[in-house]
Specification:
Layout lengths: L24 H13 L3 E9 L2 E8 L1 E3 L4 E2 L6 E2 L4 H14 L24 H5 L14 H4 L6 H11 L13 H15 L3 H13 L5 E2 L13 E3 L3 E3 L14 E3 L1 H12 L6 H8 L10 E5 L2 E10 L2 E8 L4 E10 L3 H13 L23 E4 L7 E6 L2 E6 L5 E7 L2 E4 L4 E6 L4 E6 L2 E7 L1
Antiparallel strand pairs: 1-2, 1-13, 3-4, 5-9, 6-9, 7-8, 10-11, 11-12, 12-13, 14-15, 14-21, 15-16, 16-17, 17-18, 18-19, 19-20, 20-21
Helix pairs in contact: 1-10, 2-6, 2-7, 5-6
């Protein structure tokens, strides 16, 4: 769950670790050492197999202002990974005969559009048609303020329905906020109590709970963006995301949770099959992610500047969790490195070497670029010797030179290759490639 995304489309302290002999531990250590030395990443990782911790590391700061360093005790807001917990709770309620996948939601929310057609299952696999409230422009004007159930339901109603229920899938945080309230009505308890009683306590998770205001004294971390220096981000009030994104945890708890989920220790085999069955690439609170020929199940998360990933590879019984509270090096690149180290695949250790550029060297790149097949215009500007790009309707982001005529914004995986003579720039992101022409 996150709103702030640019052009939408992972050495310090070692927690007690026993390394797998097949892992390239030294190379993975080298990555974290340079990320720490260059101040490119703040966060924690855990890799576990068959319940045994293979690798764990934490770098950066929990709280820069008080100089509190990250450790294996650090806790992070995990954003939409919360949806996996919420989905498991719903399936537990189904197994207890308290809910059904095919029951409609009008008894819970009679004023929601199409409530007599939308089922619990539709909420779980994002086939409800209910508008994603975090996509609304006004979301960032109230996300730090507490909201009641009545207020959140009114906000969700205001977004209306954007397609006929069950006709297709489209990701919506609204679905899982509503599922949180359904669980509360079903058990007549607060969501945080349900989560604690049914998953946290039975599994013995010591660092997982429904979050509130960030408490540094409880080893919770603040999140930071970077613009010349680390800047502390405002906190989303956790009364808003509920089961869509309010869980606080750490990588070791997350890997234990997903291992137990796939061991059928939380929900039954039948429920797990329904949870992991994909329709239009959506499971029920879970997605499938590839790594070479292998497939994993899991979820990613983003709230404020926290980013997280959780994945389980059934073939290897391998669980990987990554949480971060600040980064200028992409979380996905950290995950790829970790999985490559385990699978003895090649991966590159970045050097973060900078290229000296004069202000006048940037002049040929400046201007507005567009293409009929690309949904936004990209405006290139400069401040002294720094180049910036700004997509239509979004904030400007800094570009780092990688070689002559080539720049990147690592955080979002954006690469720009300028062709000044042709007055063009080639934009690459997430496997996409677009050639834009200067106006």
């Amino acid at each position: 769950m996150t709103k702030k995304i640019v052009i939408t489309l992972f050495l310090a302290l070692i927690a007690g670790s026993s390394y797998s002999q097949k892992m390239n531990v030294a190379k993975l250590d080298s990555l974290f050492q340079i990320l720490k030395a260059k101040d490119k990443f703040m966060g924690s990782i855990a890799i576990s197999q068959n319940g045994t911790l293979l690798y764990s590391k934490s770098i950066g700061m929990d709280d820069i202002e008080s100089n509190k360093k990250a450790s294996n005790l650090s806790k992070y807001r995990v954003g939409s990974i919360s949806k996996m917990f919420t989905s498991a709770l719903v399936f537990m309620a189904i197994e207890e005969k308290k809910l059904m996948l095919n029951q409609t939601i009008e008894t819970f929310f009679p004023t929601i559009e199409n409530a007599n057609k939308i089922t619990v299952g539709n909420l779980l696999n994002h086939r409800s048609g209910i508008y994603n409230f975090t996509s609304a422009p006004e979301y960032m004007t109230y996300n730090t303020q507490p909201k009641t159930e009545k207020e959140m339901v009114e906000i969700i109603i205001k977004g209306k329905s954007i397609f006929e229920p069950n006709s297709k899938a489209d990701y919506s945080n609204s679905n899982y906020v509503l599922l949180s309230y359904i669980l509360e009505k079903t058990y007549k308890k607060p969501f945080k109590t349900i989560l604690n009683d049914k998953i946290v306590k039975p599994l013995g998770l010591k660092n997982t709970y429904n979050g509130g205001k960030i408490n540094i004294l409880n080893n919770e971390t603040n999140s930071y963006s970077f613009s010349e220096k680390w800047i502390k981000e405002p906190e989303t009030d956790m009364s808003i995301p509920m089961g869509a994104g309010a869980v606080v945890s750490n990588p070791q708890d997350l890997t234990f949770f997903i291992e137990k989920l796939f061991a059928k220790a939380i929900i039954s085999e039948s429920s797990l099959k329904q949870m992991t069955a994909l329709q239009d690439n959506y499971g029920m609170g879970i997605f499938q992610y590839p790594f070479y020929e292998k497939k994993s199940f899991g979820h990613t998360g983003g709230i404020d500047e926290f980013r997280s990933s959780l994945a389980y590879f059934p073939e290897d019984k391998l669980a990987v969790a990554l949480t971060s509270n600040g980064r200028t090096y992409d979380n996905n690149d950290v995950l790829i490195a970790a999985l490559s180290a385990y699978n003895n695949k090649p991966f590159t250790i970045p050097t973060f070497e900078t290229i000296a550029i004069k202000s006048e060297d940037l002049d040929p790149y400046l201007g507005e670029y567009s293409d009929a097949g690309f949904p936004m215009k990209i405006t290139i500007t400069k401040e002294n010797t720094k180049l910036f790009a700004q997509a239509t309707g979004q904030a400007a982001f800094p570009l780092e030179p990688t070689e002559k005529n080539n720049f990147e914004f690592k955080t979002a995986g954006i690469k720009l290759e300028f062709k000044p003579n042709e007055k063009q720039v080639i934009l690459k992101q997430g496997g996409g490639k677009f050639t834009l022409t200067k106006k």
